[in-house]
Design brief:
Helix content is about 35%, strand content about 20%. It is α/β, with parallel strands linked by helices. The radius of gyration is 14 Å and the shape is globular.
């Protein structure tokens, strides 16, 4: 299996890749080059179904962000109607698999906090039990997004 297919598979499962982090509605885990990985959890029958997960896909202006978002949708996960991005793309909208995603400037704390609340409401409205955040933004934006 190619490294790209492995990266897409891991991201679609919410397990993380370089500069990707997972934010669950409960405890917050961060997976990336500058943080420690969470303890391994086995996937069992008690694991959440893909349709119970809403994905906030940061970095959607980029090709990798779009590919990972599409892979998540193919797995049955729901795509959040917003994503964090750098200041230059804030206010833009991106269409991914029929979902219109508003790009929010992650360097603007107030806008990012508002987006977090919007994600919780969108997940609840869609019947999702967890929010997973995958980040493929530029390295200058990823630290702020991880703190979010």
């Amino acid at each position: 299996m190619s490294s790209r297919k492995v990266a897409l598979a891991l991201a679609a499962l919410g397990l993380g890749v370089a500069q990707a982090f997972v934010r669950l509605a409960g405890p917050s885990y961060s997976l990336g080059a500058h943080t420690t990985s969470p303890p391994r959890r086995s996937l069992s029958a008690s694991a959440l179904a893909e349709e119970d997960i809403m994905v906030v896909m940061n970095g959607l202006p980029g090709a990798m962000g779009r590919e990972v978002a599409a892979a998540c949708q193919r797995r049955g996960m729901k795509l959040a109607p917003f994503a964090l991005t750098g200041a230059s793309y804030g206010g833009d909208t991106v269409d991914v698999g029929g979902v219109s995603v508003s790009l929010v400037d992650g360097t603007n704390t107030a806008a990012a906090d508002s987006a977090a609340e919007a994600a919780k409401m969108a997940a609840a409205a869609a019947g999702c039990k967890r929010i997973v955040c995958i980040d493929y933004t530029h390295p200058t934006a990823v630290k702020g997004n991880a703190e979010w």
